[in-house]
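User: Round two. Same drill as before: sequence, then structure, for each protein.

Assistant: Same drill it is. First protein:
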Amino acid sequence: MKILHTSDWHLGKRLDTYSRHQEQVEVLDEIIRIADAENVDIVLVAGDLFDTFNPPVESIDLFYKSLKCLANNGERAVVCIAGNHDSPDRIEAPDPLARECGIIFVGYPNSEVPLFKLDSGLEVIRSEAGFVELKLPHCNEPLRILTTPYANEIRLKSYLGVDDPETELRKVLKDRWQQLAEKYCDISGANLLLSHLFFTKEGATLPEEPDDEKPILHVGGAQAIYTSDIPSQIQYVALGHLHRKQIIDQEPCPVVYSGSPLSYSFSEANQTKYVVLLEFQPDKRASLKPIELHKGLPLKRVRSQGVSEALEWLKQNPDCLVELTIVTDAYLNASDRKLLNQTHQGIIQIIPEMLQGTDSDGNPQTTNINLSKGIEELFAEYFQHTKGLPPDPSLMELFKEVIANKKDF
């Protein structure tokens, strides 16, 4: 039995104002080709299918067309769960039609997949809330999946029928998973857990959640789940949420984040992206093979000494998306910015880093400009930097009057 694990497609996501749609088209086509080349029996998509609850029409179109290709007319099963970026209702809405193609959507932790059988031989044999057992067309043994899409702690407890708000989430999930595993997951089939939660090894340093990601570990979110909470019957845990491919633990089985197929923030610059290919046999440890993805533009964080050095680098590196920091002793003017953007089409952000004299060792000191601040605050900081004094109230009033009458520029 061959299984392909992917996650965090984030369809519709932009990098600042830059659309990633064409890159998403190309990388999903690459994943489809991998599934075909490896003769995969089932594809698991572990949440964050879209980037927002209301994705663009072109992203919805790409999503369904890609899943249809992956399912190959029901010859291959596809199971998708909701992540913290997804609307569970939106994810489950097309389920009756999707099942006819061999695609299963699970939006909630207590969702129950209806029983069905296709002419291809794909069949849901058994199902209850949080569990589905599949007979795959080209496999002799069944596949059992514990499904736990994202929900915050309060909703997770509610979905799982726990009324006591003081009950620890880890215990709730551990007990529920153990109950399902003991009921369904014997050694005659392959057994796995599919989830979009934050897993960690107890006592280990928590992995970092990616920049630009809606965090799970916060008040009102969901606490970290320990790998020791996983039932011993489970042979592999397929996770979504963290964007870097990583194995959280090897015990009681491989606990794996496949990572996102594209780099979605500059904190992911220079990361290699993967899907994870698994080979399963009953009562044996899963065999893992990460497969590198090559589509999508690389993200680069570049720091240059002045505009001239930046222009030279941009000319030599045209095929990437760039966060450009320029060390300068003067604010960048409009003509500098225009020249930089004309030289390279992939500049996402230009960050001036102002020189502020030297330290005691004679080394230049710099400061970053926070472009998220308001224009009035930036003007006041600039005045303080150049004059050594804060602007007086009358000057600030004049500045406000000027920016309020932009038509006069």
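Second protein:
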Amino acid sequence: MVKGKRILLCVSGGIAVYKAAALTSKLVQAGAEVKVMMTESAREFVSPLTFQALSRNPVYTDTFDEKDPAVIAHIDLADWPHLVLVAPATANMIGKLANGIADDMISTTLLATTAPVWVAPAMNVHMYDHPAVIRNIDILHSFGYQFVEPSEGYLACGYVGKGRLEEPEKIVENLQHYFNDARSLPLKGKHVLITAGPTREKIDPVRFMSNHSTGKMGYAVAEEAARLGAAVTLVSGPTNLPTPPGVTRINVESAQEMFEAVMNVYPMTDVVIKTAAVADYRPKVTYDQKVKKQPGAVSVELERTTDILRTLGEQKEHQLLVGFAAETNNVDEYAMKKLREKNLDFVVANNVSTEGAGFGTDTNIVTIYQREAEPKSLPVLSKHEVAKEILDEVIKELKERSR
């Protein structure tokens, strides 16, 4: 519940500022006490008077405008909230926060706050995909910031894609979710990286190699990890699933794209849970034009893809690594072999030929393996329940390491 919570809303410039006005109204209606800070560019779109009327509080725009000489405004504001929400967060503001630049009221206050910070980006689709913005978002994740992913659709610039500020109702829902679980957040301050779904290995423009993974298991783990307070990055192959609340999602197609996305985030993560069904092989030659039907048999030569999990194990420093093993026979043998050879902390294995387990179902039957303990076999459970069991083991191990 946001009722009774003090929320500091930081509004940076962009056409999505009008949504921030609606967001202010929604938060106040939900019972939150809201104070608003605005950048100079935000004021070009919507007047501070609008936010003052909606929040029923003064609006702060200038670091040097000290309304009360007895206090330093940006320090007073930094100490005030239960939560800071930056919405909309422009590429410029994200860059400032990631690099410690403090040249306006918002960036100065956020350097001084110890409250949890949530960021709702809004920008052009190409800006959102730019390596500098991706890097800055990764840095903020490493600080423990949480993100409300932008939605996809028609943008003010005329492009169609990802970059729209999420709807105010959805943002409030994310914050409700956060405060509802705030009493028990064992993964708060941890950055969890999760991979999910299949990969697609291109043959030609209309054909590819893939598998039956739907991503349901990985998305369930991502949702539960976020609910437990983690900053969650979800690297996802092609699926039809919505992004879980409070989760940052990176979409990829191929095994190589997934490898690159994972390695980019890996140094800043505490826990990696690799549920994705990544292709072991890809066509050695791909074609720019559709391969036409020919008489007789056609062969496709394959080459190995990079073993993401093995690479993570080789480069492991402080991270806790959880791998998945989808098998059809000799599950115990293959799971323990994977655990040892890839330097993992846990392997979650299942027999995908068993009814109620594997791809496409809403349930799973798994066994959790680790080096110094007996395997933990679970009955048929929903994938969300399996996710909770996995994260319980992860939390126990993290607590053990911190002793």
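The domain at 6-180 is CATH 3.40.50.1950 (Rossmann fold).

User: Perfect.
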